[in-house]
Amino acid sequence: MTPLGTSALASGLGTGNSAPSRTASPGREAGAEASRPSPQSPVPSPHQSSPHQSGTIQAKDFAFWYGPKQALYDVNITIPSRAVTALIGPSGCGKSTFLRSINRLNALIPGAHHTGAIELDGEDVYGDAMSAVSLRQRVGMVFQRWNPFPKSIYDNVAYGPRINGGSSRAQIDEIVEQSLRRAALWDEVKDRLRQSALGLSGGQQQRLCIARALANEPEVLLLDEPASALDPIATQKIEELLYELRSELTIVIVTHNMQQAARVSDYTAFFYLGRLIEVNETGQLFTTPREERTEAYITGRFG
């Protein structure tokens, strides 16, 4: 499938930072009603599948509580591999709770509990067979506020491979370089790898955090509003990076910026009051949403 185009969204969503051009497939709008999945149904991957691909996430009747307060209600969704899925919705709707549940970060909160399941390639991430360490090697996380370690640029990226063990110094050198290249940061820092990461700009620090996550060779990359605190130029670099990485990883991004969701994602899921209201191809969700609440949110009637 050709990456989704966003030209049709311009009138309803306005403009923003430019991203790599994406051309819509001919005839996408034709027959949209017949092909549109139900609000919580699995959606197909836009990339050709192969037996070696991995990173498919499936939530089955997943509900979550912070103590007595329920934050998510019976979420059912399949997030396809090798695609970017955006989670949108007003503040407090549960999208970040769902994102953090994928790699069990919420399980660290006292009193938090869940029902249902979240599966990664068919394996329950909360099951006894899945350790938190192995899960977080497979599912990387990048937060809203960049959080590099108070170490050198090199040591930040090398941290995961060193902890995992089994790599020689030469192998770690290669991992560091390749991870920084994948994060589009190598050319900017290759001459100062031994300098503190805290001396980088905010946008560079955020890309360093992405490189640090990539050094573990994850199948999935989760991003919780990764560009919300960045300037427009740094935001554009992050979006271009996600566009490049989408062919390698399953990417799930939480964003309040609907223009950003339209630019970078293949699929979009709309959450409201802890419930998954609708999920669809991004172009279809923004132009012909199935649910009235989705249309009200994307047109700015609430949120």
Comma- or semicolon-separated keywords:
single chain; 303 residues; alpha/beta; Rossmann fold; six-stranded mixed β-sheet; four-stranded antiparallel β-sheet
Helices and strands, with pairings:
Blueprint: H1 10-13, H2 32-35, E1 57-66, E2 69-79, E3 84-88, H3 95-102, E4 112-120, E5 123-124, H4 132-138, E6 139-142, H5 153-164, H6 169-182, H7 186-189, H8 202-214, E7 220-224, H9 232-245, E8 250-254, H10 258-264, E9 267-272, E10 275-281, H11 282-287, H12 292-298
Parallel strand pairs: 3-8, 3-9, 6-7, 7-8
Antiparallel strand pairs: 1-2, 1-4, 4-5, 9-10
Helix pairs in contact: 5-6, 5-8, 6-8, 8-9
Major sheet size, sense and barrel closure: 6 strands, mixed
Number of strands: 10
CATH-derived topology of one domain: Rossmann fold
CATH class of one domain: Alpha Beta
Radius of gyration: 19 Å
Q: What's the pLDDT, averaged over the residues? A: 84
Strand % is 15-25%
- Helices and strands, in order, run as HHEEEHEEHEHHHHEHEHEEHH
- Helix/strand/pairing class, anyone? alpha/beta
Q: Based on Cα principal axes, name the global outline.
A: globular
Question: What level of helicity do the residues show?
Answer: 25-40%
CATH architecture of one domain: 3-Layer(aba) Sandwich
Strand order of the largest sheet: 6-7-8-3-9-10
Q: CATH H-level name of one domain... which superfamily?
A: P-loop containing nucleotide triphosphate hydrolases
Instruction: Please count the helical segments.
Output: 12
N-to-C span = 32 Å
Unreliable runs: 1-53
